[in-house]
Amino acid sequence: MTGLFITFEGGDGAGKSSVLREVGRRLKEEGYPVLETREPGGIEIAEKIRHVILEPSHTAMDGRTEALLYAAARRQHLVEKVIPALEKGMIVLCDRFIDSSLAYQGYARGLGMDDVYRINEFAIEDQMPDLTLFFDITPEEGLARIEANKGREQNRLDLEKIDFHEKVYEAYKKLVECYDRIQVIDARPSIETVSASAYAAITPHLPSDTPGML
User: Fold this and answer.
1) pLDDT for 5-32, tens place per residue?
2) Residue 209 half-sphere exposure, CB side, CA atoms within 13 Å?
3) Domains along the chain?
4) What is the pTM for the complete model shown?
5) C-alpha to C-alpha distances, 43 to 46, 49, 86, 140, 204, nearest whole angstrom
6) Nearest CA-CA partner of 106 in 63, 73, 47, 165
């Protein structure tokens, strides 16, 4: 059995994490076996790497170091959690994956998307998402949401200047043009509306047989 690997991508403040939880809840209600997870993190080792990467005081971190740490966390998360779930026939909903590295480190950090892709190609081998949802919102709107949501986790990337986030947004637009697996979701409306749009995008990819029997 082979499951379904769906990744949720977007700039900071796009609301993808909240949408992922809502989509996961709805899929479970429909009877599908679902695993919700995130990057960097999802397992103990990767969560520790996440802390190193996103700790606000780690401002001296080199861009290449950052890219390599993301790839390392991704590898461990993939082999320890994602692939086993897919082999069980589960629907895996993952908050960020390789496209985040291409956008943030490859393009916004100026390391080169091709070079960062090669690092991650080594890390993930052939395991790419079946479907990627890009939650489209301008950096200004996304950062305004973060500012308004004082309970949200504040990390080192949130402290970057607006031009960094604009480059991230530009990179995602380029990725949308390059990969057919990426579908654009308007992230500006209410969480209910965005979640409905995300679920509708996922529906055609769901198995046609009985839920729970992927």
Assistant:
1) 999 999 999 999 999 999 999 999 999 9
2) 6
3) 4-205 (3.40.50.300)
4) 0.93
5) 5, 10, 16, 32, 30
6) 63
94-111 burial: b if 16+ Cβ within 10 Å, else e = bbbbbbbbbbbbbbbbeb
Q: Are 132 and 6 in contact (CB under 8 A)?
A: yes
HSE-CB for 14 with a 13 A CA cutoff? 28
Strand bridging mode 4-10 / 131-136: parallel
Bridge partners for 131 per DSSP: 6
Give Cα separations from 197 to 25, 60, 168, 201, 212 (angstroms).
Answer: 15, 40, 23, 6, 23
pLDDT in tens, 187-202: 999 999 999 999 999 9
Residue bearing tokens 């939880």: 21
Name every residue whose Cβ is closer than 8 Å to that of residue 106 and which is 6 or more positions away in sequence.
Answer: 67, 112, 113, 114, 115, 116, 117, 171
The set of residues, in sequence order, having a beta carbon less than 8 Å from that of 62 and lying 6+ positions away, is none
Q: Which of 141, 176, 155, 125 is nearest to 52 (CA)?
A: 155
CA 19 to chain centre: 12
pLDDT tens digits for 72-131?
999 999 999 999 999 999 999 999 999 999 999 999 999 999 999 999 999 999 999 999
End-to-end CA distance of the chain: 7
